[in-house]
Amino acid sequence: MPTFDAALAAFLASPASAPWRDLSVFRDGTVAQACAAVDAERAAGEIVAPAPERFLAALALTPLDRIRAVILGQDPYPTPGHANGLAFSYVGPPPLPRSLVNIYRERADDLGLAPSPGGDLSSWARQGVLLLNTALTVREGASKAGSHLSL
Predict the structure, then answer these.
(1) Is 22 a catalytic residue?
(2) Confidence (pTM)
(3) What is the homologous superfamily of the domain 4-139 according to CATH?
(4) CA within 20 to 30 Å of 12's CA: 21, 33, 65, 81, which one?
């Protein structure tokens, strides 16, 4: 089973992480400590979202020097299979989460753009929209929203 610690190490070794490595949360071990805490929860039987290889997707898809806009969320969707490492992005079956429907509605009102039929916001991230949750992980389950806000 892949660990969050191993996923962090892989990210930091990748070229995509170069601009992010100098941030204090990576240099001072804050992210590493959070990964260790999440890995300990998983070892105790908790199911955590998103998958380890996706929890830094926002940083991997949006280079620091190419950020044009930032959209902050609280934490990943706690519904099993919904979180993909980008705030508000969703790759599950319909219906779309209310938060994403609201974003699409505001986008349509402000820019006159039709709502996208799906919820995958990867293309936004690649265009410079940093879709970052303040907590990068969450325990899966209907009542688990906010479960990793203190990590």
Answers:
(1) no
(2) 0.93
(3) Uracil-DNA glycosylase-like domain (3.40.470.10)
(4) 81
